[in-house]
Amino acid sequence: MSDRDSARKREIEVTKTGKFDFLFNLTGLVGLGAFMVIVWAILALEIPEANKELFYHLIGIVEGVVLSIFGYYFGTSMKDNDKK
Question: CA 68 to CA 31: how far, in whole Å?
Fold first, then answer.
């Protein structure tokens, strides 16, 4: 929990400076590019039967990495407004 909290605090401080965050934009583009390559590969390539299981595992790994990146940079924390 403290790691996520410190990551959010870092991003808040970076945003307050008003400077262009190159890493933020590069990460978003790389993540989007990886997603597009996976979609293209699923639709356009015929994966040999011997490599299908490996291909499915690689899709899961890339998906996990992309979700982690997007979760860090673009995710929001849920607010608990119901408790007072």
Answer: 10
